[in-house]
């Protein structure tokens, strides 16, 4: 029996009869129409061709999905080869997407794979619109936020402008792994919780410092290291041509030395080589079995969505391999005021009355729902601080140490506090956000930390 | 093709409270919610402009200046073509962004006097995405790219400055000489001969 027949006989077993977990409109595939759909029509986009992407591509192809596209901007590195099994040593330096597509097509000749060796954010909404489902194995929160917002924006509503037209909903299946832990998730844009709805569930990264703090008022050794890598490296001779390679000991050493110089200039102690490494790459080993588990879970969700042979995951599952094999599903809820898929209300931030613009920027960088590290803040249409373009950055940088209360006029006044409506944008935020900044008497307000920042009820 | 319709039905059957809330808002199209909607729209428009401005693709060939750093809706973009007839010149454009952005495009006028088939003596610019082909998915950067393209490949078939368009088609060498002559004159007299705003 050839591989195709083997593959389809397994699929026949799944699709040939109903079961307790089948979706409500599942019909047994007596006329092969479901298999035809998988084989010839269902277009699946795999975003990311790293460890998870390889697993996903393999599993999807083995399920019979034959209209695959894969996007990845990265190239193959020696350290990838132990787990990114579609790549071999001679492929080093080549595009992950292209090599993965070729390798998959060699192994599963019936499968058509188109490679896109580009940054996912450079692809147009029209590109994304052509797919039935998008499955993502990405390595950053930023990329997921972008993809999620794009898929949400593709949903068209019926004439009441409220009810999503289900034929325009492109499900996003998202996988992620870290060491022995992993998660998979199904997002039905505008029908179920989107990525942005639950953004605050992610722990803050250690590197969430606004660039202006790094540049003007460093206080921690981490600030100095981050400044050396994010600001000094791109200006250096080697950094002009290539981003910092955190796996190159020479480059890490360079960052370490610059960070020490800066720390000395500002009288900050504690910059060590080990801390530099820790800040530059949150070293977590990649585990092949975790990727296999999560990649398969994601591929299975795609299969469920395409065939309805079982109800899709509602809507998130965690896998933890550190203590046995532990799997836990959880149903996230939509946020009515989600900044991407809901009707966002201004986010309320409480600060002491003496707070400066710089204080506000630190709060928005550390805020779990914002995570804005290169924020630009505008009051009405008057910019308070613009991270770019350079002309505006220069013009507004002088505002950083000034008190907010002195820079803003005509607040709406409540008894003992001043309120200002500001708008925030940041490269990591798909749409930007309105902020309602409340300045309170010093004794009424705690220092501006995360727990004093609350959402409007 | 995905059987999402079934999911949606199930959601409705499950008595989704959020749907009920959504329907309530649509039904009560009273003055308050209309005002809220238009405020929300203005806020969305401002956020979009703010975001587009932070993403402006400035380089050694494109600079952006804000005459009043307190006003994001008016700025001047200068373009320096790296090749072609207009190589080496700086061409300045005044941008004025309406409150209805991105549903309406910004108004763009050329401040530098230039002999160009698609830019007239008054500084009007003929670029499709500034008028009929503008779409909200386009951004300020789209216009920046469009303007740069205009200097690399002037379009003689859709001439705004008829004389320049005809000369480009019939006598390319003479056209080139005229362009250079105008650029020299502009460089010599500098900003004084440039149009005010």
From TrEMBL, chain A:
Domain E2 binding residues, every copy: 349-440
GO biological process: protein neddylation
CC terms in the record's Gene Ontology section: cytoplasm; nucleus
One example GO MF annotation: NEDD8 activating enzyme activity
Active site: 212
Entry-linked InterPro entries: E2-binding, ThiF/MoeB/HesA, ThiF_NAD_FAD-bd, Ub_act_enz_dom_a_sf, Ubiquitin-activating_enz, UBQ-activ_enz_E1_Cys_AS
Swiss-Prot/TrEMBL catalytic activity: ATP + [NEDD8 protein] + [E1 NEDD8-activating enzyme]-L-cysteine = AMP + diphosphate + [E1 NEDD8-activating enzyme]-S-[NEDD8 protein]-yl-L-cysteine
Protein's pathway: Protein modification; protein neddylation
EC number(s) on file: 6.2.1.64
Pfam family name, one: E2_bind
Keywords (A to Z) from UniProt: ATP-binding, Ligase, Nucleotide-binding, Ubl conjugation pathway
SMART domains reported for this sequence: E2_bind
Enzyme class name: ligase
Top-level division of the source organism's lineage: Eukaryota
Family: Belongs to the ubiquitin-activating E1 family. UBA3 subfamily.
Function recorded in the entry: Catalytic subunit of the dimeric E1 enzyme, which activates NEDD8.
Name under which the protein is recorded: NEDD8-activating enzyme E1 catalytic subunit
Source organism of the structure: Cyanidium caldarium
UniProtKB/TrEMBL annotation, chain B:
Biased composition (Gly residues): 14-24
Annotated coiled-coil segments of the chain: none
Keyword terms: ATP-binding, Nucleotide-binding, Transferase, Ubl conjugation pathway
Pfam families recorded: UQ_con (PF00179)
Signal peptide: none
PROSITE patterns: UBC_1, UBC_2
Region (Disordered): 9-29
Positions of the UBC core domain: 44-188
Molecular-function annotations in GO: ATP binding; NEDD8 transferase activity
SMART domains assigned: UBCc
Active site: 126
Pathway(s) per entry: Protein modification; protein neddylation
InterPro entries per record: Ub_conjugating_enzyme (IPR050113), UBC (IPR000608), UBQ-conjugating_AS (IPR023313), UBQ-conjugating_enzyme/RWD (IPR016135)
Tree of life domain: Eukaryota
Similarity-based family: Belongs to the ubiquitin-conjugating enzyme family.
Name of the protein in question: UBC core domain-containing protein
Organism: Cyanidium caldarium (Red alga)
